[in-house]
Design brief:
The chain is α/β, with parallel strands linked by helices. Helices cover 53% and strands 12% of the residues. It has 13 helices and 7 strands. The strands form 2 sheets. A 5-stranded mixed beta sheet has the order 3-2-1-4-5. Strands 6-7 form a two-stranded antiparallel ribbon. Helix 8 runs antiparallel to helix 10 and helix 12 runs antiparallel to helix 13.
């Protein structure tokens, strides 16, 4: 039986720095820097595999999962590591590729690293599409701020609700005092209209993907919750990929960064705000979604239609969620919690209901 060889790979576009350590040994056997070329990498791996069983890893970076998929195609085990969760010494001020590779392989061999769940190529492409839509939405927000800022410098202010059809017509009819300022305004408005058209196009694309056989069952379940539409449902599915990999709701809460932080020592027990050490996109949309649970719970016509599309067991989860989160929000408010804190708290509980909704149906055995 071959000895296991752990490889810590510091991946770069043009080079790989690889540190190798044998299982059960405390010293690093070899550190080498090679060109990031398939022929060179394969030659090195074939040399190692003669005497060792390879277990390699590298930190997730801008290259994504491309290198990991390539290693798997060649028949070599490769893990992608979460960079933010790699243990680091507080006083360490020296950093280079060789040090990074050595630290990576030591932690990997000791089991101290957190492995990232790799999505398939199709899942990653859908996730990229949704992230593109979210990025355009943020750019749209900046474009609106730029228009508002320009008008304020001219002493012009719209008193009504902004970005309605009436407001946009008013913007097009504005005549600023200087020709250059007028051109800037028209350019901003043109950019705004372009962004809105691209967002509408991507929304249609996401709707079509959500209706496919792969995503439709999960989207139907998530849409039964108040505050979750097709976009939010697809975002959760694309970012989480597989809900079954979380053994309990708390694990999913931790992935989304919704667990409270803690600073306790001895008899002193200290709690703090949420960790925010998770998926920012999902967390932001979930906190926006739970604002629908502030109002008195009732089943609307749309919600009845959504509930009729799923089985009774999952439908009860959505109904119980609506009642529970509303009750919990007002209980926290009556205790003196401010609105953002209360919303964050019920968003954490909301994740528990989502976890339960996405679990397989439990059949009773006689």
């Amino acid at each position: 039986m071959k000895t296991i060889a752990y490889l810590g790979i510091d991946y770069h576009l043009h080079s790989l720095t690889i540190a190798m350590m044998e299982e059960g040994k405390h010293k690093i056997k070899d550190v080498i820097r090679i060109k990031n070329d398939d022929k060179v990498i394969l030659k090195y791996m074939k040399k190692l595999v003669k005497n060792y069983e390879i277990r390699s890893c590298y930190e997730a970076s801008s290259s994504g999962y491309y290198f990991q998929r390539k290693m798997n195609e060649w028949g070599y085990h490769c893990d992608v590591i979460a960079p933010s969760l790699v243990p680091k010494k507080p006083g360490e001020r020296r950093k280079n590729d060789f040090r990074d590779a050595r630290d990576l392989v030591r932690n990997y061999a000791s089991g101290l690293l957190t492995v990232v769940h790799p999505p398939s190529e199709e899942e990653e492409s859908v996730r990229s599409l949704i992230r593109c839509r979210l990025a355009l939405k943020e750019t749209l927000k900046i474009a609106k701020q730029q228009i508002n800022g320009l008008l304020l410098t001219q002493g012009i202010h719209w008193a009504g609700t902004k970005w309605t059809l009436k407001h946009k017509r008013w913007l097009l009819q504005l005549q600023l005092s200087h020709e250059a300022s007028q051109k800037v305004l028209l350019e901003h408005i043109g950019h705004l209209e372009y962004l809105e058209s691209r967002i509408k196009y991507l929304d249609k694309e996401i709707e079509q993907i959500a209706a496919t056989e792969i995503y439709a069952p999960s989207v139907k379940k998530l849409r039964c919750f108040k505050g979750i539409g097709t976009l939010t449902a697809m975002l959760l599915i694309a970012e989480i990929t597989d809900f079954r990999r979380f053994p309990n709701p708390r694990a999913l809460m931790a992935f989304l960064g919704l667990l409270p932080s803690e600073n306790s020592s001895g008899d002193k027990q200290g709690g703090g705000p949420i960790t925010k050490a998770g998926n920012t996109r999902c967390r932001k949309h979930l906190i926006e979604s739970v604002q629908h649970y502030v109002k008195k719970p009732y089943i609307s016509a749309q919600m009845k239609d959504e509930l009729s599309r799923i089985d009774p067991q999952h439908a009860n989860i959505a109904i119980n969620c609506m009642k529970r989160l509303n009750k919990r929000y007002w209980a926290l408010t009556m205790k003196g919690k401010i609105r953002p804190v209360a919303l964050t708290a019920i968003a954490r509980e909301f994740v528990g209901f989502i976890w339960a909704m996405m679990r397989p149906v439990q059949t009773e055995t006689v």
